Amino acid sequence: MVLKYFCTALDKISKGGHKVSPSSMWVVVGLGNPGKKYFTTRHNIGFRVIDRLSEKYGIPLEEKDLYMIGKGVMEGINVILLKPLTFMNRSGLAVKKILKKANISADNLMNRLIVVHDDLDIDVGTIKIRRGGSSGGHRGIESIIQELGTKDFVRIKIGIGRDKTIPVEEYVLQGFKSYEKNLVEDVIILTSHAVTAVVTEGIDKAMNKYNRSQIKIDKTQSQ
């Protein structure tokens, strides 16, 4: 894979990085839609990052009423992995419920909540870590902002590109093209490292490291 050696190096860096207090709790949310028919769509790449983190850190996910959830430890830090099952435009219901159960105040979400989601305005192969801000028209982020009453939480955006010939609501529910699929797998790995960096090293260091990261598409694999 493109990231084989890069990711090995990042593992070593993250293990030696600064750790916040073990008593701290981070909630990592991946956005998507429930159901097998949506699994490989562009809109569901946030779910796939949670699956990757679940596998990497041995945190099993259990299905509840509104979500799939896993509780465990990431590089010595307590985390909750969350996949809302309310469909994208109601994602905030599950996030709000979990934050309440975890006794995490909306006043301190910049150090407690990471939301991983797709972004139409970023090219495939690129990720971007952002502090708060508007939803950018993303229905899942809009729902979370509305339910929590704040925009102040960490987002990790994964580029899915845009096709101006296809309505947005159709495009996000399409699968990735054949020449994008290997790259998407690499981006999921890259994003999982970015999540770990935010949790272990802080958002500033994570932004400096990952906001310049881009994986190139090899279109010769398109046929």
How are the SSEs placed, and which strands pair?
Layout: H1 4-15, E1 25-30, H2 45-57, E2 62-63, E3 67-74, E4 77-84, H3 91-101, E5 113-119, E6 127-131, H4 139-148, E7 154-159, H5 168-171, H6 181-201, H7 203-210
Parallel strand pairs: 1-4, 1-5, 5-7
Antiparallel strand pairs: 2-3, 3-4, 6-7
Helix pairs in contact: 1-6, 2-6, 3-4, 6-7
Question: Can you tell me about this structure?
Answer:
This protein is an alpha/beta fold and 223 residues long. It is 35% helix and 19% strand. It has one domain (4-13, 22-221): 3-Layer(aba) Sandwich (Rossmann fold). It contains seven helices and seven strands; from the N terminus they run αβαβββαββαβααα. The protein has a seven-stranded mixed β-sheet, sandwiched between helices. Strand 2 (62-63) and strand 3 (67-74) form a beta hairpin. The longest helix has 21 residues, at 181-201.
- The CATH architecture can be named as 3-Layer(aba) Sandwich
Q: Could you spell the SSE succession in H and E letters?
A: HEHEEEHEEHEHHH
Percent of residues in helical segments? 25-40%
Computed structural class = alpha/beta
Q: What is the number of helical segments per DSSP (H or I, 4+ residues)?
A: 7
Q: Outline the biggest β-sheet.
A: 7 strands, mixed
- Cα distance, first to last residue? 19 Å
The low-confidence runs, each spanning 5 or more residues with pLDDT under 50, are: 1-23
Fourth-tier CATH superfamily name: Peptidyl-tRNA hydrolase
* Overall pLDDT: 87
The number of distinct structural domains comes to 1
Number of strands: 7
CATH class assignment: Alpha Beta
Strands of the widest sheet, in order across it, are 2-3-4-1-5-7-6
Examine the coordinates and then state which fold CATH places here, giving the name of the CATH topology. Answer: Rossmann fold
Instruction: Tell me the fraction of residues in β-strands, as a range.
Output: 15-25%
How large is the radius of gyration? 16 Å
Tell me, briefly, the overall form: globular
